[in-house]
Amino acid sequence: MSETKKNPRLRDVIMIGAGPSALAAAVYTTREDIDTLLLEKGVIGGLAAITDIIDNYPGFSEGVSGLDLAQELQQQAERFGAEIELAEVKEIVDEGELKLVKTDGGDLRAKAVLIATGSDYKKLGIPGEMEYYGRGVHYCATCDGAFYRDKRLIVVGGGNSAAQEALFLTRFASKIDMLIRSDKMRASEVLQHRLHKEPKIKLHFNTTTDEILAEDGNVVAVKGTDKTKNEAVRIDTDGVFVFVGQKPTTEFLKSSGIELDEIGFIKTDEKLMTSMEGVFASGDVRSGATMQIASAVGEGATAALRIREYLED
Amino acid sequence: MSETKKNPRLRDVIMIGAGPSALAAAVYTTREDIDTLLLEKGVIGGLAAITDIIDNYPGFSEGVSGLDLAQELQQQAERFGAEIELAEVKEIVDEGELKLVKTDGGDLRAKAVLIATGSDYKKLGIPGEMEYYGRGVHYCATCDGAFYRDKRLIVVGGGNSAAQEALFLTRFASKIDMLIRSDKMRASEVLQHRLHKEPKIKLHFNTTTDEILAEDGNVVAVKGTDKTKNEAVRIDTDGVFVFVGQKPTTEFLKSSGIELDEIGFIKTDEKLMTSMEGVFASGDVRSGATMQIASAVGEGATAALRIREYLED
Fold it and tell me: Which of B39, B60, B202, B209 has the fewest CB atoms within 10 Å around its CB?
């Protein structure tokens, strides 16, 4: 498929995003001599690259730093010939055999497209949150809960995922304070019932989360406001888990007609193809994603093989 | 869920197999304090452990030896508390909330089961095949094709997968001799047409593959028999790819009622659950598997999260 290499504006595959899923896919496509361009608007390596220590990516028995893993993935993809460009994709247009990929650096075309733009956890936007991201402030209990055995935790949020994850975190934490902005929870009755029964969990309704406080580089407390009394509260903790929603990076697909689920994640079939023929999706941006690097990488490899089949047909 | 730890015969999860998919799943379950036992009848690390160099497992930019990757996976799972026992599973019986797992070492029970027994490539059973497994004799073009740039190859087989993989290998190899036992191919007409048009490929019908010859540890030729003339043939080559079918390790499921596809791979739903409630499957044994370590590992992680949800319900 190297005939497309002569034209830098026409590629076999364009991958949107350069996180673990796209990089894994690129290892596979480039190793099979499929001309592959990755377009990244932010950080190569995605969320993984800005994660302190990753303990659960299979193959690193003692864990690996997010930055190291991201660099390994990038080097591996580039070793086989993947090209990575910094560009923001604005739109994908179905032209039949080719897909038009409009970017802030001009128009590109490809025979197949992989969307692996990931998703991001919604942030509180409060002081201390970004400073201690991954080092005291977390968004994924499966990823980071195990670092808090016999420690105190604060969970922020009142929806189903906050409730589920708080219950899950009781396996590790000795005590969990749950800060809920409203006077009631959005979580299901069943989950609320379980929360009330769980002795490790204390619910704080009508309480905003205003600031994350640290000492010597370690998170030590959260400052909030009790809205019923309109007074400041300070709750000591060893870590904060924020579960206020997720936001897939799919804004740019609005005009494409590619089918999304109600939250905005991309729907795919069993071959990881989207509703637009020849356009695939993998990793955290996909509806049903587990938000785990291992799963994103695995889906990247699978998507690459499905793309190869698609290109051969 | 540690209450089950007191009874070594009753576990939260039993995983059947200890290849990359089960080991990845075990990293996740044990890290979440789900009591996990892996039962392996053969080699810990599965097919990966007996693969020489793995170039396409994402995260190792320069490749990793199969043995090293298998050991890392095992250590990582054991670090979080996974237990691995050598035992052969004979049967799974649905007892409702518990699953009875009959082994050659006695009966065990678990709340959930993950089947990750993998599959194996069918072998020719000829001299030289096992001696040069992974070092001149291969069963996966996606895995090992790239090692044969501008080299000569022999492909054994006459079905769809042999035809597809031979065509794929023309990206790398300078010349491919294809040995087909019968006087015609089982591959589709379309594929046969493409094989005939491909100048790099030469088809040898009515030709058996009898022995793989090596010199100084390197594969140099294949000895076969031209059945029409009933005379021995010798074809020089740098490597041999065998595509004569695959065999999932699912014999032990025959009496379980777990639904298999026509070849014997396990059917699963979008949560990787089999037709038996509480019994999941991941990796190469699953219907639709890509036979890639990355995908098997990713599915292992996904299965672990689905098992956690199942156990919590």
Answer: B202
Q: Mark yes or no for CB contact A69/B59 under 8 Å.
A: yes
pLDDT at residue A53, rounded to an integer: 85
Q: Interface pTM (ipTM) of the complex?
A: 0.83
Single out the residue of B39, B21, B23, B47 nearest to residue B91, CA to CA: B39
Tens of pLDDT, residue by residue over B238-274, are: 999 999 988 999 999 999 999 999 999 999 999 999 9
- Residue B192: domain span: 137-242
pLDDT at residue A178, as a whole number:
98
Q: What is the CATH number of the domain that holds B162?
A: 3.50.50.60
Averaged pLDDT of chain B = 94
Q: Give the model's pLDDT for residue B191.
A: 86
Residue A60 is nearest to which of B76, B80, B270, comparing CB atoms?
B76
Residue A159 lies in a domain: yes
**Of B242, B260, B275, which residue sits at a domain end?**
B242
Q: What is the pTM of this model?
A: 0.85
Residue A131 lies in a domain: no
Put simply, the answer to whether B31 touches A55 (Cβ < 8 Å) is yes
Query: Given CB atoms, is B302 within the 8 Å cutoff of chain A?
Result: yes
B3 in contact with A at a CB cutoff of 8 Å? no
Question: Does any domain span residue B112?
Answer: yes
A126-148 burial, b at 16+ Cβ within 10 Å, e below that, comes to bebbeebbbbbbbbbbbbbbbbb
CB-based burial label for B98 (10 Å; 0-12, 13-18, 19+): middle
Domain count of the fold of chain B: 2
More confident residue, A9 or A212: A212
Question: Which residues of chain B have a CB within 8 Å of the CB of A168?
Answer: 32, 308, 312
Residues of A in contact with B297 (CB under 8 A): 58-59, 294, 297-298
Q: Are residues B157 and B300 in the same domain?
A: no
* Chain A, window 282-301: residues with a beta carbon less than 8 angstroms from a chain B beta carbon: 288, 290, 292, 294-301
The closest alpha carbon to A26, from A91, A96, A102, A82, belongs to A82
pLDDT at A41 over 90: yes
CA distance A282 to chain B (A): 12
Looking at the DSSP bridge assignments, the partners of residue B110 are B11, B99
Nearest to B32 among A79, A171, A270 (CB): A171
Domain boundary among B221, B242, B263: B242
Q: Note whether residue A129 is domain-resident.
A: no
Average pLDDT over residues A198-213: 97
pLDDT, tens digit, 9 for 90 and up, residues B279-310: 999 999 999 999 899 999 999 999 999 999 99
Same domain as A98, residue A146: no
